[in-house]
Amino acid sequence: MLDKSPRPATVNVPNDLAAHWMPFTANRAFKKNPRMLAGAKDMHYLTVDGRKIIDGAAGMWCCNAGHGRPQIAEAIGKMSATLDYAPPFQFGIPQAFELATRIADLAPDGLDHVFFCNSGSEAADTALKIALAYHQTNGQGGRVRLIGRERGYHGVGFGGTSVGGIVGNRKIYGSLLTGVDHISHTYDREKQAFSKGEPEYGAHLADDVERLVNLHGANTIAAVIVEPMAGSTGVLPAPKGYLKRLREVTQKHGILLIFDEVITGYGRLGFAFAAERYGVLPDMLTFAKGITNGAAPMGGVLVRDTIHDAFMNGPEHVVELTHGYTYSAHPISCAAALATLDIYREEKLFERAKMLEPKLADAVMSLKNEPNVVDIRCVGLTAAVDLSSLPDLPGKRGFDGLNSAFHDNDLMIRVAGDTLVLTPPLIITEDQIGEIVDKVAKVIRAVA
Ligand SMILES: Cc1ncc(COP(=O)(O)O)c(C=O)c1O
Questions:
Q1: Residues whose beta carbon lies within 6 Å of some atom of ligand 1
Q2: Which of 31, 241, 281, 333 has an alpha carbon within 20 to 30 A of 23's alpha carbon?
Q3: How much is the pLDDT for 134?
Q4: Residue 298 and residue 283 in one domain
C-alpha cells in the first residue's frame, strides 16, 4: 500500500558528481551509490529522497545536542546580519572573549587561556607549535622532538599527520616532520576484549615514553600528544590509570602533555572534558567539533597559565605569538558556540551522557554473539564493534556495513576499517539506543 504519511520535500541532486573530490571518502563507490543528505532534526538526518535516518554518529562526533537546534541557528543568523566578519589579528569581538572565559570555566582549573582556530587539525598543529615556541621562550630551545602514539589521530595538517599514528593516513605523504616518534598504542585484544569502559590492562604502556627518553634524551623532547580515548582508529578507551601515569612520566622529564579532546570534549565521556573524568591536568588541551555542535567551524587550544604567561613579556607593542588564522574566533562560530554551551548547560547534556553510559554499554555488549564480532569496546556515549575482516579485503566488511546501515536500515554509523562505531548525540533516549543497536545487529548479519 502507498505510504501517505507526510514526508519531507525531496531535494534535487545534480546529475554530475564528478567535480567534487570528497574528503576521506571512497569517491568512485560513493558516486555510483551516493549517501546523500538533505536535512537534519534532533536525532535524525533526512536523505535527499525523503527518508529519515537515525544518527548514530552525531554527524561526525560533532552534534552532541542533536540537529536543527533553533537557538544555534538564530544566534548564527543574528550574528551574521550584525557583524559578518571581523579581523582577529589586532582586533577583537566581545563574543570571542566571553566564549574563551566560558570554555576556560568548563575546563579543569589551570587551563585558563584559549587560542582559537577553525578545526581539530588546526588545533593540533597550534598546540604543537605552542609547545615548541614555549620551550624556545623558556630557554630550552633544544626541546624540538614531538611524540605521538601509534593509532592516534590528530587531523590532517603536517604536524597532526606527523604525530598521528594511523598508518594509512601518513604513509603516502613522504617524510613529514622530522624529529617525531610514537609511543605504543594501548590496545591488546587478548587481554582487553569485551571490556566495558576503561580496560584493566595497560597502564604500564605509558612508560613507553621512557624508551624514547632513553633514546633521545629528555632535554630534546618538547611534547607528547595523545587522545584520552583514541576515536578515529576505532575507539580505544584509555586503560585504567594510563593517563595518570603518562602525566607522571612526562612531568618527571619536563615534557609537555597535550590532550587532543577534539572528540572527547563537550560531553562525549560524561564530562566537559575527559581530563576531568580521569583527574589528569594536561599542559594543553585541544577541542573542536562539539564546541559549536557542528553548526560552524571552530577549534581551539586550552593552555595552562605557565605556558601562556611565558610569552607575555618583551615590548608590549610586539606580537607575542606569530600564529593565527584569518577565521580564528569567527563571529558566526563564536555565536554558535555560545548558544551551544547554553544548551549543554540548560539540558545538562554532559550529565546525561554519564547517565546513559551503562545503558549503551549493556546494549552494545548484547551484540557479542552476532556473526564475526571479535571485540566490543565502549566508554562514555561511544561504542565500537570490531568485525573480523574478509580474507584479503580489509575494510570491505565495514564499508558494506556503512552502506547496509544507510541504504537498508535507515541508520548512520561511522566505520573505521572493519569496526562499526556508535557515537550518537547526547540527547538520545534509552529507546533510541535500543533502536540503534537493533539496527546494528541487522547490519552485522547483512555483512556476515
Ligand atoms: C582526536 C581528533 N583530533 C583531530 C581531529 C581533526 O579534526 P578536524 O577534522 O576538525 O580537522 C579529529 C577529527 O576527527 C579527531 O578525532
A1: 119-121, 124, 153-155, 227, 231-232, 260, 262-263, 288
A2: 333
A3: 98
A4: yes
